[in-house]
Amino acid sequence: MPAPPLNILTTQRGEVVVVKLDGIVDASTIDALRRILEPLCLQPGARIVVDGSLLSYINSLGFGIFFKLSQVCREQQGRLILAGLQEKLLIVFKILGLEKLLAFAPTCEEAVATLSGSGGS
Other CB atoms closer than 10 Å to residue 43's CB: what's the count? Predict the structure, then answer.
């Protein structure tokens, strides 16, 4: 049985770009995710919310790409926040020690509000 696809929807909310992910992040979908997120993260001062409320699975490649792209955003004086992740995914971020290196928000709305009021810092 083939892996479920990753649907990616990008919308603009003021100065914040919201990237909503629906499906799984694994070897079969990582390139599509990278093609969308990397150019956004390379924009100086980018404010990006990754809405993962509909993600059901992230493999090690996915955890790595989120970490890498968060660093890219910071290098460009921008910010990336992962929002709405299921508890089972948050636990893996914590086990990997990434909860201290990435920004998280309980909901997409809270993440957008944080970035809208922060000036991207």
Answer: 13
Mean pLDDT of the chain: 92
Helix (H, G, I), strand (E, B) or coil at 91: helix
**Distance separating alpha carbons of residues 119 and 38, to the nearest angstrom:** 21
19-73 residue pLDDT tens: 999 999 999 999 999 999 999 999 999 999 999 999 999 999 999 999 999 999 9
Torsion sign, CA atoms 23, 31, 93, 14: negative
Q: How far apart are CA 86 and CA 74, in angstroms?
A: 25
pLDDT for res 117: 78
CATH entry, 7-118, from 3.30.750.24, 3.40.50.1000, 3.40.50.2000, 3.20.20.70: 3.30.750.24
Whether 4 and 103 have beta carbons less than 8 Å apart is answered as no
